[in-house]
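Supplementary notes for students who missed Thursday's class. We covered one full example, reproduced here. Read the sequence, then the structure, then the short commentary at the end.
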Amino acid sequence: MGNRCAVSHLSCLVTTSYRPDVRVQEQAMQVARILKLPFVDRDKQSLEQMYSRYMVAGVVVVSRIKTSYHCPQGEFFFHPDKSAMRIKEIKYGKTDQMIKAMDLYPGCSIVDCTLGLATDAIVASYVSGTAGKVVGIESSPIISTLVKIGLKSYEQQGKKEVIEAMRRVRVLNAEHGQYLAHLAPDSFDVVYFDPMFRRAKLGARCSVDRLRPLADHSPLERVNIKLALQVARRRVVMKETRTSQEFDRLGVDFVVGGKHSPIQYGVWVVGNEGRIW
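Structure (token representation):
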């Protein structure tokens, strides 16, 4: 049930961009305190030099415009492009299969147990609206911190509805099994899992792959589905690839997904007495 990360966040450090001002320096030191990581002055060191000199797998870099995680695979920083595109499609009447699987509407409450890049949480926040509630649980301290900073600080003209949806997402750094175990029954309408990005797509290069060394690679366990069914008032939903055997292994009630989409959603309906485990 534990969230096993390929790289401990303790094999990282925090620094700044070149020639930081006082605000950036203070912000970087604050991030280091939050993450309980060493802060190192950047001076004129390249990231490659820092990997080697301090024997770390990654470096969190704070600059005037963003806070990002760097590793040999590349750079990750929060950006809501994918969620913005999906929100735009929803506004134009296109069916979002995740929203359909959740049976989501304004005023709903959702806990996203595998927050990651927060794309799904932002879309859920947009649909649930100001009367709804979205909580994102992320086991990686670095991912949760970078996403939390991004959700609170990202600004771009022309994306007011996306920005408002982002600001409503609450981020918690926790292991989802432990978090669910401490919740009262019927705490949320929907409990959501997206354990997909433990597997890399062949030939794919994206921000998810850059986070892979920090990510939880353990499969979803049935005990956590049972916890989720106690916490949820209506549904538990899991995202997976069409070719995955996880839906059969975990015994979903039914599957939702586009006819040609590589992504599908397994759904458990709260109160289904006919389920056999």
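Commentary. The first strand starts at residue 12 and ends at 16. The chain is about 35% helix and 20% strand. If anything here is unclear, bring it to office hours.
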